[in-house]
Amino acid sequence: MTLSRSTIKPLNVDWLRSVISARDGETKLGQDLTSFDGSASVESFLTKCAESGVKFALIGVPEDIGPRANLGRGGAKGAWEAFLGQFANIQANQMFDHSHLAVLGAVDLGGIEEKSADSPAELRKLCEEIDEHVAAAVETIVKHGLEPIVIGGGHNNALPIMRGIVRARSAVSNSTFKLGCANLDVHLDFRRIEGRHSGNPFRYAYEEKLLHAYFALGTKDSYNSAESIESLRRAGFHFVSYEDLFVRCCTTLDSAVDAAVNYFLNSSCFVGIELDLDSINGLPASNPVVGGFTLEQGTRYIFSLSSRLPCAYLHLPEGAPAHAPDGERIVGRALLELVLAYVKGRAHCCLL
């Protein structure tokens, strides 16, 4: 699929202005954003971004079909707008260089997310269609030299993100691009090939030879099937469980992150950083956890990896603001902190 203007929903500038709480003597980020408004083609916008020193493209995926195809609940389609409302209202100041960021908009899923489907089989077919739209968007971002930061939707979108990145980077280098993933998550998301959903993106990526290294942190002993665990081990991939960290106390989170860094450096892979919002305590999410990580631990995980590894992307799925009375604010602010940790980590990495 080739990306065109119709594949990206441009940022609604009028809506953005309406959510900014402007104050005299201050500049909010939303008042000084580089954003795609649809007045030019996506390709032209991205070319200008790259020429002006932009490094990161923020893009949303407003869907919850993947989690529902995994027999879960919806709500993840609201995370992108929740994030934008908070992102637009932070201070534009000397503590954060936002000139390296551009807001591209949301993937236009062509009405797929509105289609009526109830059975897992139907939802998994729709998930395959979403894969194509997301992969095309990511591929074009990467072809223009920008790093995607993908927000919202289910964890199913890890697969098309990887497809888009590998296609784009392999085309540039004329060789296979080696990609690995770190994932802070209570689930391995390495379930069997049974149709696409949010529980099997990394299994599909492995079978498609897209995923060369994988390290999951915080998985719950009782949340993952025997088949998933055995398949992951046969693939030569690694995980450190929540119980290893906080119950058996075999290691610490900092030590586990250090182990992940060494693993990826030895793999010679570029690394995608994944954080499933299900794993963060107190957040409205598709499948919220009882006993998980704090937001501070999540931001530290992202900063530690992004400041020490050659990174390919950041993906923050599964936030579902509709599942709490103040969910828009809570999910939006959490996503904001995680995005800032990544961008600041990448800036720190480039300064080393």
Please give the CATH class.
Alpha Beta
Question: Which percent bin holds the helix content?
Answer: 40-55%
The CATH topology is Arginase, Chain A
What Rg do the Cα atoms give? 19 Å
Q: What's the N-to-C terminus distance?
A: 38 Å
Which architecture per CATH? 3-Layer(aba) Sandwich
Topology:
Elements: E1 8-9, H1 13-19, E2 34-35, H2 42-51, E3 56-60, H3 65-69, H4 79-87, E4 101-107, H5 120-143, E5 147-151, H6 158-173, E6 179-184, H7 201-207, E7 211-219, H8 226-234, E8 238-241, H9 242-246, H10 253-267, E9 270-275, H11 295-306, E10 311-316, H12 327-351
Parallel strand pairs: 2-4, 3-4, 3-5, 5-10, 6-7, 6-9, 7-8, 9-10
Antiparallel strand pairs: 1-4
Structure description:
There is one protein chain. The chain has 352 residues and is an alpha/beta fold. It has one domain (5-351): 3-Layer(aba) Sandwich (Arginase, Chain A). It is 41% helix and 15% strand. It is built from twelve helices and ten strands. α8 links the parallel β7 (211-219) and β8 (238-241). α6 (158-173) packs parallel to α7 and α10 (253-267) runs parallel beside α11 (295-306). The chain is globular and about 55 Å long.
